[in-house]
């Protein structure tokens, strides 16, 4: 069975997409073609969206699913005439919220980002540049400013996680790769010792690590099962020895790794 | 008026937060204390959540607002007893979806990320490393692999936007800073010329640019109004001359910049 799902928004479409992905993932037996229609904020763009939705209905022989975060009432009225199941976030939640809060909502378009004001932008930008400057152990002298220092073997997901922590939560996340040299004597590198309380470990299953590394350097010692096995074992021993909190990132998305780190460390985000 | 808002989830909480931020932003007159409670996936954690919500109700003298994406029915039943307005995403949308699709949903916890599987993880990881390697004009020899090359003056948001495009959409985004040397003769740098079709410009208002640069190097020529004015004017002239598409990023969040770039270029994301 195939269906088309539309994520419709007067803004970026991120809220509609996030909501939609979440709901659709509950129907693993259905294949959805997913189309995001952002910036639907005029009569014309709404009419275009309706046309695309109706075309999909025709083509699929079944009603598309439309996740909508449109705010404007006229545009929602135009949309309501299309041949689809419309899941309208504002219709469902805004009424109860207005009643509870005892005020009318602004019905303003494109308000969804709390991260649009200048101060928030600055925090984010600084955090991103901190993550870049302190990626992969490139520099260690600014670790006193770090909120967290991720450690793990090469290709265990430290870099994307650091960047996600910076972009999403405004956190100052450094990362430092542990290598064979560090495993020889099972000691933390000198640069990390003064910041032991900020260290957080990422572990990964040996097979998965070897697979990831093989995509980069197939057939190399670096990507061999034996080498990956040695590194992951030594890493766990090191974490145990120094009592460093860690999570196994093997089956987790970057979002999951990041939010689990927050939950486990109690680290407060700098951005809401 | 102050209220506490909870974003409650059995997973990362990202869907509940995104939805919640979107809805709450419609009530600009109300101050919300926002608390995310992720990984609520047992009787115990649900009971803890209920306790925290009830404490907030007591403290505020008003019912908290709870955005919930809990899937498990028993946990939702426990949650329903707390003193709050509960906006339950699954209760509202799952029924109509099941009816439309003619199948029961899996009611499985933590399914929200389409980006959790290994192939998607690989795409994301490669895209992030591409963005890092090709940040700030560091290298230009891999531009044939780029999906897009962002250009603009220093501190106009190129780096965070490149990273967001990589993390969120899996796109290979390079960025290259244009400087005084490039403005002297209003010619594109040689490294960019063969890739003209991939160029996308970010512009920014002079005052805002000066403010951002001043946070970094207050009182410098680099941060002066005069310098920023010269650069932003020359940049626009360059974009006009070469017919390079661009957007003004001054009042936009990184999400907005990124999604507008997609909308304007028609670039297809590599990740859903």
TrEMBL record, chains A, B:
This is Putative phosphoenolpyruvate synthase regulatory protein. Belongs to the pyruvate, phosphate/water dikinase regulatory protein family. PSRP subfamily. PANTHER family: PYRUVATE, PHOSPHATE DIKINASE REGULATORY PROTEIN 1, CHLOROPLASTIC (PTHR31756:SF3). The lineage of its organism: Bacteria, Pseudomonadati, Pseudomonadota, Gammaproteobacteria, Oceanospirillales. InterPro entries: Kinase-pyrophosphorylase, PSRP. HAMAP family: PSRP. Keywords: Kinase, Nucleotide-binding, Serine/threonine-protein kinase, Transferase. The keyword Cell cycle does not apply. It holds the Pfam family Kinase-PPPase. NCBIfam families: PRK05339.1. Bifunctional serine/threonine kinase and phosphorylase involved in the regulation of the phosphoenolpyruvate synthase (PEPS) by catalyzing its phosphorylation/dephosphorylation. One of its GO terms (molecular function) is kinase activity. Its EC number is 2.7.11.33, 2.7.4.28. It catalyses: [pyruvate, water dikinase] + ADP = [pyruvate, water dikinase]-phosphate + AMP + H(+); [pyruvate, water dikinase]-phosphate + phosphate + H(+) = [pyruvate, water dikinase] + diphosphate. It comes from Alcanivorax quisquiliarum.
């Amino acid at each position: 069975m195939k269906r088309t799902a539309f994520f419709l928004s007067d803004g970026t479409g991120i809220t509609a997409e996030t909501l939609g992905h979440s709901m659709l993932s509950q129907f693993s037996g259905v294949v959805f073609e997913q189309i995001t229609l952002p910036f639907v904020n005029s009569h014309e763009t709404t009419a275009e969206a309706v046309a695309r939705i109706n075309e999909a209905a025709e083509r699929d022989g079944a009603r598309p699913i439309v996740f909508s975060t449109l705010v404007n009432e006229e545009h929602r009225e135009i949309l309501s005439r299309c041949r689809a199941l419309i899941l309208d976030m504002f219709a469902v939640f805004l009424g109860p919220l207005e009643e509870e809060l005892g005020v009318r909502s602004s019905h303003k378009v494109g308000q969804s980002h709390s991260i649009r004001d200048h101060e928030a932008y600055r925090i984010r930008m600084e955090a991103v540049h901190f993550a870049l400057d302190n990626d992969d152990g490139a520099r260690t002298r600014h670790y006193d400013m770090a909120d967290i220092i991720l450690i793990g073997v090469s290709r265990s997901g430290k870099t994307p996680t650091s960047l996600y922590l910076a972009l999403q939560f405004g956190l100052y996340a450094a990362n430092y790769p542990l290598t064979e040299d560090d495993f020889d004597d099972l000691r933390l590198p000198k640069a990390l010792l003064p910041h032991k309380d900020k260290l957080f470990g990422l572990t990964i299953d040996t097979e998965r690590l070897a697979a990831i590394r093989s995509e980069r350097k197939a057939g190399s010692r670096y990507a061999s099962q034996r080498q990956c096995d040695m590194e992951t074992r030594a890493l766990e021993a090191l974490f145990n020895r120094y009592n460093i909190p860690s999570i196994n990132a093997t089956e987790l998305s970057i979002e999951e790794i990041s939010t689990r780190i927050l939950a486990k460390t109690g680290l407060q985000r700098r951005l809401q």
